[in-house]
């Protein structure tokens, strides 16, 4: 997110003035007892560090503000720790000199699990989507923003190639889930076909589609690692097995498909060419998904 959204959130989300003022690391709204959010800046004197875990969780070691631990902002974090109130965690990715200006990643809601006096660090653990439900109340409906969060968090969890019916996400209407998967995958690829580099986007009209590597017919997961943005004809060719992708993300045209009668079909000119990938590595197609496609679709193609 750009800094402008974080500091002027109310312009996009009426009712919430700001997520963080970005003046100092800990943001406690005036008159409140709890910190609303914390931000780890690119340049700071603290020992902040984040680590991702295979179960979709993350840990963040965060320093209190220098000075007295009884100051208002430090006390607001200790209040969160004592009362198990979550905080929103932000990590700065770039400053104003970057190509996209000052931007922050919203890691999500975190629970403070403890404070180590010797190293002067809070231990914060990212909340799983199930915990967010428990915090907000079991009776709530899974809203759009939580579906987006649940799908994106799948990219950080231990890989499971197929839908898990025991997870709340997969109890959401399949059509609704598909809409969110499409939005996330197209966002990761900037609405651009990963294979041809083609892009057409005009308001809500987007030519590219969100292709599942392991098909939905085979209960393939909605994990973004199981998705690739492809133009319509490329998506069709991928589902039919005319081509697949190597572990190095290179296009592999099936030898039998090369015998087809073609005209103005540029896909076949891309054999052994590497596809375009998202900037974030944890959104790259999973190797096991690609292997499944090579074995089950491309490997069984018969021209």
TrEMBL record:
It comes from Oceanipulchritudo coccoides. It comes from the Bacteria. The lineage of its organism: Bacteria, Pseudomonadati, Verrucomicrobiota, Opitutia, Puniceicoccales. Residues 193-245 form the HNH nuclease domain. Pfam families: HNH_2 (PF13391). This is HNH nuclease domain-containing protein. InterPro entries: HNH_nuc.
């Amino acid at each position: 997110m750009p800094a402008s959204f974080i500091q002027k959130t109310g312009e996009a989300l009426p009712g919430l003035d700001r997520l963080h003022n970005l003046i100092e690391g800990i943001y406690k709204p005036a008159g409140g007892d709890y910190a609303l959010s914390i931000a780890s800046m690119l340049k700071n004197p603290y020992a902040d560090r984040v680590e991702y875990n295979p179960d979709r969780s993350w840990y963040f070691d965060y320093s209190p503000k220098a000075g007295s631990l009884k100051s208002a902002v430090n006390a607001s974090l200790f209040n969160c720790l004592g009362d198990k109130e979550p905080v929103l965690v932000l990590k700065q990715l770039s400053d104003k000199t970057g190509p996209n200006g000052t931007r922050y990643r919203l890691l999500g809601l975190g629970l403070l699990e403890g404070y180590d006096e010797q190293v002067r660090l809070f231990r914060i653990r990212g909340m799983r989507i199930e915990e967010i439900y428990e915090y907000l109340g079991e009776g709530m409906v899974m809203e759009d923003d939580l579906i987006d969060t649940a799908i994106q968090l799948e990219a950080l969890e231990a890989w499971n190639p197929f839908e898990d019916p025991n997870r709340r996400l997969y109890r959401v209407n399949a059509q609704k889930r598909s809409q969110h998967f499409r939005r996330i995958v197209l966002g990761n690829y900037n609405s651009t076909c990963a294979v041809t580099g083609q892009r057409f986007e005009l308001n809500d009209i987007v030519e590219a589609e969100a292709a599942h590597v392991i098909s939905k017919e085979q209960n393939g997961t909605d994990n973004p690692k199981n998705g690739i943005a492809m133009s319509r004809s490329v998506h069709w060719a991928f589902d039919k097995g005319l081509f697949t992708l190597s572990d190095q993300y290179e296009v592999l045209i099936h030898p039998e498909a090369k015998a087809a009668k073609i005209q103005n079909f540029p896909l076949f000119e891309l054999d052994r060419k590497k596809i375009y990938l998202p900037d974030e590595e944890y959104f790259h197609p999973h190797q096991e998904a690609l292997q499944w496609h090579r074995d089950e679709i491309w490997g069984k193609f018969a021209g």
